[in-house]
Specification:
alpha+beta; 5 strands; Glycoprotein, Type 4 Pilin; five-stranded mixed beta sheet
């Protein structure tokens, strides 16, 4: 039997065609992947905002207990699996305009509030639980799964403006926010809804809850 292989010219032609197709299709594929990540982030911030609203409906307060005295004391809260390093990741220190030192003890993860009734400090569960009896009670869990955003950065919410009334904080818009593809949050937390129309900035993805 006479076997015939490909000639060098045929191989070059085939490889050239493959290279051209790859050059044409790669940008489209990458755009579709990025679009799917943006769509996922948009959906997840909506779900998280809805969970916060359900929490408020049940308890008559927002998930802002500091886990020790039961009083609100958080500047911001993070969503998604976190480590000690994550608590200052994604440019959130710049996002809220505060240094890492200022954030110490002033943040928590939403797992402690929306998945289990164990509000804590800096991600450690414990402290004073939300009440579980009476008309206004914790009736969770309000979320069954929490993940980092599609780019591996935790979601965040500037909950200080849900409870603090000094310095016009009561008039600042509140967001549930993903830092977006560049992984650096650019949305200002000082957006006074009396004089401006609050909106996310840069490539941030968020939903406004107040």
């Amino acid at each position: 039997m006479n076997k015939k292989g490909f000639t060098l010219i045929e191989m070059v032609v085939v490889l050239s065609v493959v290279a051209i197709l790859a050059a044409i299709l790669t940008p489209t594929i990458m755009k579709n992947i990025n679009d799917s990540k943006v769509a996922r982030a948009k959906n997840e911030v909506q779900v998280m905002g809805a969970a916060m609203a359900s929490f408020f409906k049940d308890t008559g307060r927002w998930p802002t207990s500091n886990g020790t005295s039961g009083n609100p004391d958080y500047l911001y809260i993070l969503y998604g699996p976190t480590t000690a390093n994550d608590m200052n990741s994604g440019g959130y220190s710049r996002f809220w305009g505060k240094s890492t030192a200022v954030w110490s003890g002033r943040k928590d993860i939403f797992e402690n509030h929306l998945m289990r009734n164990q509000p804590g400090t800096n991600g450690t569960p414990g402290g004073t639980a939300y009440q579980t009896t009476g008309e206004l009670k914790w009736n969770g869990p309000y979320l069954t799964d929490l993940k980092a955003d599609p780019w591996g950065v935790v979601y965040s919410s500037n909950v200080i403006s849900l409870w603090y009334t000094g310095g016009n904080y009561e008039y600042y818009a509140v967001f549930v926010l993903s830092a977006g593809p560049n992984k650096v949050a650019q949305t200002s937390f000082r957006q006074d809804y009396r004089t401006t129309t609050p909106a996310t900035a840069g490539d941030d993805i968020g939903v406004r809850i107040k």
